[in-house]
């Protein structure tokens, strides 16, 4: 099979819960390599005139240069660099065709999704549903939709369902361009037991210049997607902010009615067996060819994850109390990223995995199925696109290979569901004291969240700051297979707007200090190490907070905080409590804070985590 060479790609490290949903969205690694003649396909399409063989022509958009994002009618309208169309460096910034092996360097690029396809044929909207994911023996059943995280031990399936509209042009030179408008994507939320709820959303991705990569073909172009980032301000000193798929589109691609090259994708990553060493870049290879109906496309989406059930009263759920709806705040919607998908094969493997020289995980593969161009022309679409990538050093999961499948069928109207239960609190804020909540003036300075749905309330009807979990209880012990240890999942939140504390107005945080745990006061080596790990986890949480107003910056904030930096929370972190025989044992987290008012007030916030044997009454 033919190949397009290999390129090194650095894949990101993801959070403890996000890894469950990674196959659905991840930063694009290397653009598609389609072995057709882009010159024959583009021709004069995009010049604003309806030429021979065209049904429409509404111009193009400048991509890659200093006036990226403006409407154009030819490369002469665009200034500076362009973008590689097709070939081994699809989506890469370029100066001329020599930078684009197998493709062209284009400055004025036509897009579809607006009634006129990128090959200047009129478009048709084709509604499709995702074949609902089915799980069998820990795998997503072939021909259904979902993702599987595969590690040395784990095999975690995440089924998917939803609908979208494929906007397709007509066959020209054996190719049918397709686009997906962001406002037509509708994916169902994904419950992950009682641990978390995930949400996949299509996004009209934009970057500085509208390219996927800088000129080296590896460095991603800076994301400037409005709302999720600072928008055009991200591109100060760079090329202007411009769309990746055309304005309003979340995906774009091509179906080869006469076949398509470059449809087999393979990834290999050396996770570097030496502990503490940085994994090597992932190596991507693209090659092979597919029969009629083969497709490759790029899809931009976000993955949002909320700790707990898919309904509740926390900030992440929005006013309607439901996750994965239009009123969810941006802070819970995730970060835009782009994933290449194919009807061919996708295979991935990690080597020297989990700090073990010579240990390989995989290869794991998934195969897509082709579309039928005749059906597409008549307004029907069915096919299956797949994706895969490796990821090293994932929290709790170790080194993994993740595969995903989006199986499309003719649109089926969603079946009405039973009424959703009245939203109830699941992971609310927990004040760290026992004061009357209507009179507490400092209790909102430092608060907690603990995943523990069955814990009783305090005398005021609020979540108690004494959290009790039974060893092995899956609803609160996140290390159920390790008898004698309860692993709680905890968040710490600072300077909070908490409706349960009406007398407390956030005034900022000037200083913080941890009063407990105190591993140095313990003589037992095992317990001392456990408390040290707990102390480190708490300290890391306090210094790595997410500002909901600047969620794209990630978990980088810490004290001091201003009065306007409200409800900054850490990621969930593990706190282990060693049981020790049949006795209840506990770990106390205590943080002392000073607010940032002219007359600073101190507050001590305490959280007691108790692990008890299931044999105790």
What does this 3D model show about the protein?
The chain is mostly beta strands and 617 residues long. The chain folds into two domains: 3-59 and 110-205 and 244-410, no CATH class; 430-612, no CATH class. It has three helices and 39 strands. Strands 8, 11, 12, 13, 14, 15, 16, 17, 20, 23, 24, 27 and 28 form a 13-stranded antiparallel sheet that branches. Residues 1-40 and 415-426 have low confidence and may be disordered.
Indicate the topology.
Blueprint: E1 3-9, H1 38-42, E2 60-62, E3 71-72, E4 82-85, E5 93-94, E6 104-106, E7 108-109, E8 124-130, E9 135-136, E10 139-140, E11 146-150, E12 155-159, E13 162-168, E14 175-181, E15 186-187, E16 190-192, E17 196-202, E18 206-208, E19 241-243, E20 249-256, E21 260-270, E22 282-290, E23 294-307, E24 337-342, E25 345-351, E26 361-367, H2 373-377, E27 383-394, E28 398-410, E29 430-431, E30 446-450, E31 466-470, E32 485-494, E33 509-516, H3 525-543, E34 545-546, E35 555-557, E36 568-570, E37 573-578, E38 585-595, E39 602-612
In short:
With 617 residues, the protein is mainly β. The strands form eight sheets. Strands 8, 11, 12, 13, 14, 15, 16, 17, 20, 23, 24, 27 and 28 form a 13-stranded antiparallel sheet that branches. Strands 29, 30, 32, 34, 35, 36 and 37 form a seven-stranded antiparallel sheet that branches.
């Amino acid at each position: 099979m033919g190949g397009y060479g290999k390129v090194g790609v650095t894949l990101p490290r993801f959070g403890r819960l996000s890894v469950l949903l990674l196959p659905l969205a991840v930063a694009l690694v290397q653009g598609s390599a389609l072995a057709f003649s882009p010159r024959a396909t583009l021709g004069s399409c995009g010049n604003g005139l309806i030429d021979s063989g065209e049904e429409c022509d509404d111009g193009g958009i400048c991509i890659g240069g200093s006036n990226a994002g403006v409407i154009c009618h030819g490369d002469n309208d665009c200034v500076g660099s362009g973008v590689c169309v097709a070939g081994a460096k699809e989506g890469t910034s370029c100066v001329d065709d020599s930078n684009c092996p197998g493709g062209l360097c284009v400055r004025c690029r036509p897009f579809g999704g607006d009634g006129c396809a990128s090959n200047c044929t009129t478009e048709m909207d084709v509604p499709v549903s995702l074949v609902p994911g089915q799980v069998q023996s820990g795998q997503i059943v072939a021909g259904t939709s979902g993702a599987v995280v595969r590690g040395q031990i784990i095999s975690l399936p995440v089924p998917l369902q939803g609908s979208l509209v494929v906007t397709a042009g007509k066959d020209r030179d054996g190719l049918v361009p397709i686009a997906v408008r962001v406002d037509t994507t509708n994916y169902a939320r994904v419950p992950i037991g009682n641990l978390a709820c995930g949400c996949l959303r299509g996004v009209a991705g934009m970057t500085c210049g509208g390219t996927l990569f800088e000129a080296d073909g590896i460095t991603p172009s800076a994301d400037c997607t409005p709302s999720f980032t600072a928008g055009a301000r991200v591109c100060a000193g760079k090329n202007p902010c411009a769309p990746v798929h055309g304005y309003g589109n979340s995906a774009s691609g091509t179906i080869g009615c006469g076949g398509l090259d470059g449809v087999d994708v393979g990834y290999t990553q050396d996770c570097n067996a030496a502990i503490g060493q940085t994994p090597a870049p992932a190596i991507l290879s693209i090659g092979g060819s597919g029969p009629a109906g083969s497709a490759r496309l790029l899809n931009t989406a976000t993955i949002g994850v909320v700790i707990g059930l898919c309904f509740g009263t926390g900030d992440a759920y929005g006013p309607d109390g439901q996750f994965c709806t239009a009123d969810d705040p941006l802070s819970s919607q995730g970060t835009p990223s782009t994933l290449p998908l194919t009807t061919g094969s996708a295979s991935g493997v990690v080597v020297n995995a989990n700090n073990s020289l010579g240990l390989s995980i995989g290869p794991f593969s998934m195969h897509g199925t082709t579309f039928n161009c005749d059906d597409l022309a008549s307004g029907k679409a069915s096919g299956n696109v797949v994706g895969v990538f490796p990821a090293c050093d994932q929290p709790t999961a170790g080194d993994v290979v993740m595969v995903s499948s989006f199986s499309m069928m003719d649109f089926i109207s969603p079946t009405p569901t039973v009424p959703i239960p009245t939203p109830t609190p699941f992971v609310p804020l927990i004040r760290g004291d026992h004061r009357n909540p209507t009179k507490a003036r400092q209790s909102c300075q430092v608060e907690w969240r603990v995943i523990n749905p069955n814990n009783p309330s305090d005398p005021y009807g609020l979540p108690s700051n004494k959290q009790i979990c039974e060893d092995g209880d899956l609803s609160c012990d996140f290390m159920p297979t390790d008898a004698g240890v309860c692993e709680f999942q905890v968040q710490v939140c600072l300077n909070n707007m908490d409706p349960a504390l009406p007398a407390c107005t956030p005034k900022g945080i000037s200083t913080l200090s941890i009063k407990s745990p105190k591993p140095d006061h313990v003589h037992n080596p095992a317990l001392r190490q456990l408390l040290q790990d707990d102390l480190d986890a708490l300290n890391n949480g306090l210094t790595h907070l997410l500002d909901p107003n600047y969620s794209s910056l990630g978990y980088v904030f810490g004290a001091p905080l201003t009065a306007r930096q409200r409800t900054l929370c850490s990621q969930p972190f593990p706190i282990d409590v060693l049981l020790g025989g049949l006795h209840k044992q506990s770990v106390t987290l205590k943080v002392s804070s000073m607010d940032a008012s002219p007359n600073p007030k101190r507050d001590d916030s305490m959280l007691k985590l108790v692990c008890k044997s299931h044999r105790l009454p």
